[in-house]
Amino acid sequence: MSTPATARPATSTERAAAPAAPSGRSRRLNTLKWALLIPVLTVVAGCAAQYPYGMWLTIPLAFVTIGAAAIVAGSSWRRPGAATLACVAAFALLFFSGPALYDLYAKKLGEPLDAVVAQKGTHRNAKGTELDTCTVIDTDGGVHRLSQQQNCFGQFKEWEPVTLMKDPVGLLEPYLLARTERAPDTTGLGISAGLFALTGASMLYAGGRRRG
Prior knowledge:
Elements: H1 12-17, H2 24-48, H3 55-76, H4 80-109, E1 111-124, E2 130-138, E3 143-147, E4 161-166, E5 175-178, H5 186-208
Antiparallel strand pairs: 1-2, 1-4, 2-3, 4-5
């Protein structure tokens, strides 16, 4: 009758070669990294869209960032519900953060220049949507054709005195304001802050409760 073979204990070399499970500290740092990276990159993408030709950066960066949130939280961490919430919040953050921060930057750091609205009009974009435009002449004789991105939503009358907030760096188009308007858009900033927190919190939850 044969004797059953006994398992040979692992040698020190074999134990060293075995993959070590990630420590709790390593997992927490990894979770925190993604919880910050996803909303921060989304805000960067939203701000880039405010610059001329900035969409060439915004579109790929937004796709990569939101896709990374879906893959990391949904596939790697196996939390599809939190992944969906993070992606939806990041997508909304992309649209709110750029205009809100543009408004804040122009009102706080822009260089004011007196101007007048010479003409109001509309134009159709590539999708056929009709958008408001304003032709503005400043006191230096400069002519600026501004769109809704620069706060022209049809709220100004022709020949109404306005203020242009010029970008001190010279990269952004002037931002159009009424003469008495200086308060930041607190609604847009508040929504952006809430979406930023929701995106980060969703990633934190997914990483903290990851499966596997």
